[in-house]
Amino acid sequence: EPLAPLRGGFLCRSGHPLLAQPRIAFAQLRQYPVAAMPLSDELAHSLVAELGPDAHPSRMVTINSEDVSGLLDVVEATDAIFFGIFASARDRIAAGRMQEIHVEPHVERVGQYALVSLARRSESPAMEMFRQFARERFRE
């Protein structure tokens, strides 16, 4: 079951020094720690093709965790940069506490997601609740 595509990219806290720059080059962004969840090989390849070898997650990401909320807490309280899906910071962005960073060259990133079930397998009764939750939360 396909879910709505989600935009992603770089986020920082409001008031971050990079936001005072008229244009932000990737080299400027690399002066700050980058926080992200583990990234796919496909995304790593895309980042390197668009921004150069220093954009490979093994070089770019300095704070790696599956705890998105924890990563966003760190970014909101420091000069670290978040790389990920904007919907994960929806409330913080709406409250004006976090902002998108357009790194030059700017590439619009969109993640494609889906809920997948195994054929000839019964689903847990809680799965329908999870599907409803995902349909409501996985959108811009």
Task: Please describe what this structure looks like.
The structure is a single chain. With 140 residues, this protein is an alpha/beta fold. It contains six helices and eight strands; from the N terminus they run E-E-H-E-H-H-E-H-E-H-E-E-E-H. Strands 1, 3, 4, 5, 6 and 8 form a six-stranded mixed beta sheet that branches. It has a two-stranded parallel ribbon with strand order 2-7. The chain is globular, with a radius of gyration of 17 Å. The two termini are 17 Å apart. The mean pLDDT is 91.
Largest sheet: number of strands, sense, barrel closure? 6 strands, mixed
**β-sheet strand percentage:** 15-25%
Distance between the termini: 17 Å
What oligomeric state best describes the polypeptide chains here? single chain
Low-confidence runs: none
Give the helices and strands as they follow along the chain: EEHEHHEHEHEEEH
Query: What is the average per-residue confidence, as pLDDT, rounded to a whole number?
Result: 91
Shape: globular
* Rounded radius of gyration (Å): 17 Å
How many H/I helical runs?
A: 6
- The number of distinct β-strands equals 8
Helix content: 25-40%
How would you classify the helix and strand content by structural class? Answer: alpha/beta
